[in-house]
Design goal:
Structural class: alpha/beta
Distance between the termini: 34 Å
Number of helices: 7
Radius of gyration: 15 Å
Shape: globular
Largest sheet: 6 strands, mixed
Mean pLDDT: 81
Low-confidence stretches: 1-5, 17-46
Strand content: 15-25%
Amino acid sequence: MIHGFDHTLADAIRNSAAPPFNPARQGARIEPSSGGRPHSGVAEALFEGPMARVLIVDDSPSQLMGMKLIIERLGHETVTAEDGALGVEAAKREMPDLILMDVVMPNLNGFQATRSISKNPDTAHIPIILVTTKDQETDRVWGMRQGAKAYLTKPVNEGALIKLVKELLPA
């Protein structure tokens, strides 16, 4: 089992034909999945509506890969960043439709990055889901005060993540 994810997600990662995460790459990058269209029967059943661009910000390669696989199976394009500072830069440059943000990261934590993105008039419209190991109610409240629209704790439940993504993406 991959640390921090439930069994369903670990199975999806093991059975995926996605290329492995390359930690030698730095900064944010766009990695479209088959031109944005899913390429398996299961994924096609999950795909609804137009493709969106989702920024995933997490310093853990396994967490990044797990969330990336879920989002790409939904038919969306992903952009990734490995810390909060790179996430803020990517949000300004890429203007994603949604952001999945870890909290405990180097350089700029997820609370600080969320506040920066949500207070900037150019990026304030982008919904942010905090996805973190911080499971205290005070952390959830603080995250929402920083501008997050939702808060999920790790290990991530794939169904709950998919539900929030569908709720928060523009129709």
